[in-house]
Amino acid sequence: MRRSRRSTRIATAGLLLGIAILFAFPLYYLVVTSLKTKAELFAAVPSLVPQALNLAPYSSVLFGRGFTGLLVNSVIVGLSATVLAVLVAFAICYPITRLPASRRLRGFVLNWAMSLRFLPPIAVVIPYFAIIRTIGLYNELPALILVYTIFNLPLAIWMLRGFLDEIPLELEQAALVDGASRWQAFRSVLLPLSRTAILAVVIIVFAFDWAEFLFAFILTATPQAQTFPVGVQGLVTQFEIIWNDMAAGGVIAIIIPLTLMLIARRHVMTGLTFGVIREK
Amino acid sequence: MRLGKWTPLLAGVALIASACSNTGAPGGGATTLTIAAVQGVEDAGLKALAPMYKTAKGVTLNIVELPYDNLYSKLVSTFQANDSTYDLAMMDDPWMPKFGTDGSLSDLGALGISRDSDIADVVWDVGTWPPPRGPVPPSEKAKPKQLLGVTIVGNVEMFMYRKDITPTAPASYDDVLANAKAQKAAGLTGYIIRGKATNPVVADFLPILWSQGGDVFDENWNVVLDNAASKAAINFLVNDLKATAQSDPGSTDAADRDKIMANGQGYQSSVWPGEINTAVLDPAVTKVKDKVAFIPIPKGTSGKGVGMMGNWMLGIPKASKNQQAAADFIKWMLQADTQKTYAQNNGIPSRTSVLKDGSLAAANPYFPVLAEALQAPPNWRPRTDQWNAVETIIGTELNKALTGGETGDEAATAAAAAIRTLMKSKGYPTQ
User: Fold this and answer.
1) Which residues of A touch B18 (CB under 8 A)?
2) Half-sphere exposure for A74 (CA within 13 Å, toward CB)
3) Which tens digit of pLDDT belongs to each residue from A64-97?
4) Is residue A46 one of the residues assigned to a domain?
5) 3-state SS track over chain A
6) Residue numbers in B near A156 (CB within 8 A)
7) CB pairs under 8 A between A and B
8) What are phi and psi of A272, to 5 degrees?
9) Cβ–Cβ of A83/B67 closer than 8 Å?
10) Together in a domain, A12 and A133
11) Are B26 and A38 in contact (CB < 8 Å)?
12) Which residue among A45, A148, B179, B304 is the one 20 to 30 A from B351 at the CA level?
């Protein structure tokens, strides 16, 4: 019996190790490729370890190719769209979770949000292009901020709603009984209690904004408004794929969301699982 | 203290405000020209010229680089939206029919650009719409001929082989096959096929097709890809050459071909000028630096060796607000001294005297061959705005045949039938 349990444990550990390698290997290979020279990339048999610590691809991406500007654009668009999405999501979730809204209204709002999320971006990219051109925002950062906000709003609404549902109404009611206004109750009771929720939503929405490519490609024309993913995909040329620069771009692109994820992983996990079991 | 609580919100608002305020174009008028360019070796010379033009004329060149496929779709959407973002656009020559038919580009003749005898006629012809020779799309026959694009990358498909192994150049595709078999037996890849679906395999195949007497269309837009000569050419590629090729020709693109050649594992292949200095002769990666020779496309059963043009041109979008300034840049770029500087900075010129300049030959041993190929002249891809769709059909079927999904004859028949249907639906008198 004990031997059987031990074998199961070893098998489970082996399986988990295999899965971990499966997931980690592409990341490892990305980092290794980013450190290789062009000569190493041309080797007939690719190596798993770079011959030397070659940081030239990072310098090439950030300075030689001028991708620093694209990184700044990505940060501005990502943060702006995230802030907007969270603000609007809060404005929508507050009444449907804290005020006596009808079940029908709640259902309508949540289903509407869900339907937006199911809309494939490719289906709306042409109308969006026409609209953005018409309102004069083509090749401007606000165009991306607007579109990213719209696309990630459903995610923010559903996540926030799950959190807010978990915070007992009685806490705010107690504040109201003590003479606080609804605004004070919101600011002093609900907002502090929602901190984890907001952090989780911000990180996840930001990660989606950060990685978006389709709209960034269609709605921009020059580096003035292009984001980092648009620059990185440009490294596939007709006669040459600049693997090391591309991998360096990939590593740089990963660093920011990965760092945020590591810092706040507990909150993000909570955010992803909140409200999963209980349905009000 | 109270402000501290609002700091995150204020920071967010400030961030959005800063993004919204960042709406002005970088410069304007004739002080900045924005150029949509293809990312890669093709625009290397253009990038090198930018600071020189700023010094010489005080005009900043804002070069926006996009990968090959994305550049085409970006130009199509920009032109259709009549957007003025780009003052100049780099275009592969098969795109000219689309942009010419759509009326997206300005007449360069009206802006003061005229032919120069030091640049091969075909270079001017390829930028002229409707085309001055060959079949003209029915919808374009009544239009006056205008110069819509000027070549800035003289690009003709050539042939490369290992001169250290066989000092005599292959004169014909019979020689190519015989050498390929011998080198395959000796352990090399006898002929490297660039067989990736759509554009790559078609670019590799068309010189073979034309040299072997086949074609895609005849002079009246009838599809002849399934006639005997065309079928023979397809079978030559997917049977004879494939037997001597690398293990996975169906997934090989130019970068893979160059890697095989640069590593000394391949014996011969077709080659674009743009591939030569990035890999095959790049001292940082190549093992065959002085072992490769470049020649025009060998002769086929037609008795001719027919190269294919892939010239990159500069055109001026009609929506550009800096028409004359853009034309002035093109004129400056075509000057002999600029072209020489351009060539010294990895540009591929089209001016004959520059291509034949002895001082450039050491770094660019293929320049004299390119000059010869441009004078030949090479063929251009059929001048129809449907070419992208036609190329996709041929490239898909050829790839299927290369990967064993169908025979060469089946590929020819299927591609010809699909092209006939397409062209008829677009109003061509295709049979």
Assistant:
1) 76
2) 25
3) 888 999 999 999 999 999 999 999 999 999 998 8
4) no
5) CHHHHHHHHHHHHHHHHHHHHHHHHHHHHHHHHHCCCHHHHCCCCCCCCCCCCCCHHHHHHHHHCCHHHHHHHHHHHHHHHHHHHHHHHHHHHHHHHHCCCCHHHHHHHHHHHHHHHCCCHHHHHHHHHHHHHHCCCCCCHHHHHHHHHHHHHHHHHHHHHHHHHHCCHHHHHHHHHCCCCHHHHHHHHHHHHCHHHHHHHHHHHHHHHHHCCHHHHHCCCCCCCCCHHHHHHCCECCCCECHHHHHHHHHHHHHHHHHHHHHCHHHHHHHHHCCCCCCC
6) none
7) 113
8) -75, -20
9) no
10) no
11) no
12) B304
Instruction: Return d(Cα A97, Cα A108) in angstroms, integer.
Output: 13
Partner residue opposite A141 with nearest CB, options B22, B65, B262: B22
Residue A41: inside a domain: no
Is residue A142 in some structural domain? yes
* DSSP H helical ranges for B31-110: 44-57, 68-80, 96-102
A61 and A28, same structural domain? no
Helix A141-166 and helix B2-21: axis angle, to 10°? 150
Q: How far apart are the C-alpha atoms of A135 and A219, rounded to whole Å?
A: 12
Compute how many other C-beta atoms are within 10 angstroms of the C-beta atom of residue A201. Answer: 28
Distances, alpha carbon B117 to alpha carbons B64, B121, B310, B315, B400, in Å = 31, 8, 21, 20, 44
Domains annotated on chain B, with CATH: 30-153+310-375 (3.40.190.10), 158-308+382-425 (3.40.190.10)
- Together in a domain, A29 and A96: no
Domain count within chain A: 2
Chain A, residues 208-267, CB within 8 A of chain B, namely 217-218, 221-224, 233-241
Domain extent for A17: 2-34
- Cis omega before residue B130 (within 30°)? yes
Nearest residue on chain A to B282, alpha-carbon basis: A39
Distance from CA of A241 to the nearest CA of B (A): 7
Residue of B34, B38, B64 to mutate, interface with A, max A Cβ within 10 Å: B64
The larger pLDDT score, comparing residue A276 to residue B339, is at B339
Return the amino acid letter for A172.
E
- State whether A231 and A93 are in the same domain: yes
Q: What is the mean predicted confidence (pLDDT) over B8-16?
A: 46
The ipTM assigned to this model is 0.71
- Note whether A225 and A144 are within 8 A (CB): yes
With residue B374 as reference, give the H or E element that holds it: helix B367-375
pLDDT surpassing 90 at residue B40: no
- B235-293 pLDDT, tens digit per residue, is 999 999 999 999 999 999 999 999 999 999 999 999 999 899 888 999 989 999 899 99
| Contact (CB<8Å) A129/B81 | yes
Q: Are strands B312-315 and B88-92 parallel, antiparallel or unpaired?
A: antiparallel
